[in-house]
TrEMBL record:
Coiled coil: none annotated. Pfam families: DTW. GO terms for cellular component: nucleus. Its main location: nucleus. Catalyzes the formation of 3-(3-amino-3-carboxypropyl)uridine (acp3U) at position 20 in the D-loop of several cytoplasmic tRNAs (acp3U(20)). This is tRNA-uridine aminocarboxypropyltransferase 1. The keyword Repeat does not apply. Residues 29-213 form the DTW domain. Its EC number is 2.5.1.25. It catalyses: a uridine in tRNA + S-adenosyl-L-methionine = a 3-[(3S)-3-amino-3-carboxypropyl]uridine in tRNA + S-methyl-5'-thioadenosine + H(+).
Length: 225
């Protein structure tokens, strides 16, 4: 998919915002404080909120920088459904009611459609916010070791930083997982209701020099080659 295929709310007013002092940590931030994970006052009325039919847990690797993590986009845009945990402090999933899965394309992973056909439902998605070199450590956490794995259909990332086409940013992975599960559960054509999960993703993408994005895309090597 390309950017034009998403139904993203207007960015009107965001470019007029200047840096403000975060009331929690005292640091200067533009739109939100990525350390305190909260909006600046002038931003709140300018951004959408997304309601999700599933719980989203994102386990963040300690070496993932808050300022670069798209996991925080999901937390800000879908706050009633999303929780971000800083590893190794994660919940005991054996005590949480409902069908829980880890999003990770391991050899034992089922597609979302296959998992839903076999198990009936997904109540909670668990995502691992880490590089491919770091994710192995998160998979070894005792709390997630026994959770089943699911994977997405094939998508190409629109992330502006250099990486393999099939390596999605966390916000993209959350979006596509929710969309695939919802389309399977609802049995109706998708109407764009979750597209604003990528609101901040596309806003910041638009701030990157287009020639740099084009250069990075040309330099990518598909993992299937």
């Amino acid at each position: 998919m390309n950017e034009q295929e998403f139904q993203i709310s207007s960015f009107c007013g965001l470019k007029e915002i200047s840096k403000q002092t975060c009331s929690s940590c005292g640091r200067k931030r533009m739109y939100f404080c990525y350390d305190c994970r909260s909006y600046m006052p002038s931003t709140l009325s300018l951004v959408p909120t997304v309601e999700l039919p599933y719980k989203i847990d994102i386990i963040k690797h300690r070496n993932e920088k808050n300022g670069k993590s798209t996991a925080l986009h999901c937390l800000l845009l879908a706050p009633l459904s999303t929780t971000v945990y800083d590893a190794p402090k994660v919940p005991d999933y054996s005590s949480i009611v409902g069908e829980k899965i880890v999003f990770y394309p391991s050899v034992k992973a089922k597609s979302i459609e296959e998992f839903l056909n076999d198990n009936g439902k997904i109540d909670r998605f668990v995502f691992l916010d880490a590089t491919w070199f770091q994710v192995g450590g998160l998979l070894q956490l005792p709390e997630v070791q026994n959770l089943p794995h699911v994977k997405l259909n094939s998508y190409k990332t629109l992330y502006w930083r250099p990486q393999v086409y099939e390596y999605l940013a966390t916000a993209e992975a959350v979006y596509y997982a929710v969309r695939e599960a919802y389309q399977h559960d609802s049995k109706i054509p998708y109407d764009g209701r979750f597209d604003n999960l990528l609101f901040w993703f596309f806003y910041f993408r638009g701030m990157v020099n287009s020639s740099l994005i084009e250069k990075n895309f040309k330099n990518r090597i598909s993992s299937k080659v």
